[in-house]
Amino acid sequence: RMDVYHLVGALFLEFCVVLFCEGRVQASAPPFLLSLFLLSNACAFIYLLLAVWLSMHASIASHSFGVRLLTRFVRLPIPSMKQITQLRANLKDYEQQGVANLLRLPFQDHQDWQQVHGMDASESSRTEAPEPGRPVSLAPP
User: Fold this and answer.
1) How many Å apart are CA 110 and CA 124, to the nearest integer?
2) Which of these, 68, 86, 67, lies nearest to 124 by C-alpha position?
């Protein structure tokens, strides 16, 4: 958006320069009117010069922040080997569920066994199994 402000400010700045260089005021105009015209044109020139400068700075700052955001903060995290081994399901974990959970319909009830974060592969085999005699509900939760 700052690029549009930059373009419009530069066009108005060029118009002020044209008024300074080629702007004709009638010779019969009173001097106070000529001084007001030149003063307002000088103020407009300074204001537009500041606007163009700040819009250029804002455009450069926003583009550099966008590049930094894309390269440092929004990158997809690459998991480490330890995280991958913690997320994999072992056959031992599946077998420890009990018959009731082995024969349930998928996605109909919550899973009782879940991966525990912060455990390594040797500790994951020591997770508690659900109670073998507990009935399994087939209704949605």
Assistant:
1) 20
2) 86
**Is residue 93 a contact partner of residue 125, using CB atoms and an 8 Å limit?**
yes
| Distance from C-alpha of 118 to C-alpha of 82, rounded to nearest angstrom | 9
Q: What is the pLDDT of residues 95-135, one digit of tens each?
A: 777 777 777 777 666 655 555 555 544 444 444 444 555 55
Question: Per-residue confidence at 1, pLDDT binned at 50, 70, 90?
Answer: low
Residues whose CB is less than 8 angstroms from the CB of residue 117 and which lie 6 or more positions away in sequence, other chains included? 86
Q: Would you put residue 82 in left (φ > 0), alpha (ψ -120 to 50) or beta?
A: alpha
Determine the Cα–Cα distance for residues 94 and 90; give it in Å rounded to an integer: 7
Task: Record the tokens describing residue 109, joined without a space.
Answer: 């009830």
